[in-house]
Amino acid sequence: MRVLVVSHRGIAHELGHLQPWLQSVASGGLRRAYREDGFSGLDLDAADLLVVLGSPGSVATGHRTAPALAELALVRSWALADRPYLGICFGAQVLACALGGNVRRMPGTYRALAPVPLEAEAPSALAGPWLTWHEDAITRPAGATVLARADHADLAFRQGRAWGLQPHIEVSAASLERMLSTLGVPEDQFRPYVEEMALQERGDDPPAARVDRLLAAFAEEALGR
Q1: pLDDT tens per residue, range 7-63
Q2: Phi, psi (deg, nearest 5) at residue 39
Q3: What does the alpha-carbon distance between residue 11 and residue 26 come to, in Å, rounded to a whole number?
Q4: Residues 202-222 pLDDT 10s
Q5: What CATH number has the domain bearing residue 90?
Q6: In angstroms, how far apart are the furthest CA atoms of the chain?
Q7: Which of 163, 168, 91 lies closest to 129, judged by CA?
Q8: Residue 55 sits in which domain range?
Q9: Would you state the pLDDT for residue 40?
Q10: Eight-class DSSP state of 142
Q11: What span, in angstroms and rounded, lies between the C-alpha atoms of 6 and 139?
């Protein structure tokens, strides 16, 4: 399988807890594509699985920029062809819009490091706890199955072979600190989350193990493995 990962170069680009699984499935190669380079020359036919990571950009109504619209077109083409897709945070928001859902800008940033409320169709591994940190809220597409939902937004959904996950399942304590520092978030706003994640990483059920279980469920449904 050939895997293509879309991200920025220096913000939310680290594969973190995704990396071992991606390397295990990417028998045909793991490629990176960076938003700063644009998408005009990107060969989607050379990939079997598309993974889209977070971004400070937005596809929320009234906040879409030209680069975000270009990425939205790319994801729409991929998802409507029912090709395997995994979108995290911004990647989930792009997927929602691509399939006819909605993303809206909230009055403030939502931050939590906690279990997510699962719907009946969700794999148990999705429960978390996960870090959720976003200011744009998803309303899932009409044809999608909601996997996790909070009061303010749909947190995870799937449609066909495409999954959108708002929680940052990929981040570690160290990568979270680097990401939020790069984004200019004041340290006092993220330090408690970094410290709690570090504790979880030393616990009996660390995030890496939970990610492995969740991605096994994704692989079974989306990749037929």
Answers
A1: 999 999 999 999 999 999 999 999 999 999 998 888 898 999 999 999 999 999 999
A2: -120, 5
A3: 23
A4: 999 999 999 999 999 999 999
A5: 3.40.50.880
A6: 45
A7: 168
A8: 2-223
A9: 85
A10: T
A11: 23
Amino acid type, 161: R
In whole angstroms, give the CA distance from residue 165 to residue 175: 18
Give the amino acid at 194.
V
**184: Cα separation from own chain's centroid:** 21
User: Which tokens sit at 102?
Assistant: 């909605």
Task: Identify each DSSP E strand in 69-211 by its residue range.
Answer: 85-88, 102-114, 130-139, 145-149, 154-159, 162-165
Domains of the chain: total: 1
**Position 144: which residue type?**
A
User: What pLDDT does residue 108 have?
Assistant: 94
How many residues are listed for the chain in this entry?
A: 225
| Backbone dihedral angles phi then psi of residue 30, each to the nearest 5 degrees | -120, 115
Q: Report the C-alpha gap between 199 and 5 in whole angstroms.
A: 29
Could you tell me if 158 and 164 are in contact, meaning their C-beta atoms sit under 8 angstroms apart? yes
Q: Measured between alpha carbons, how far is residue 204 from residues 118, 174, 201, 208, 214 in Å?
A: 22, 19, 8, 11, 17
Q: Is the pLDDT of residue 66 over 90?
A: no
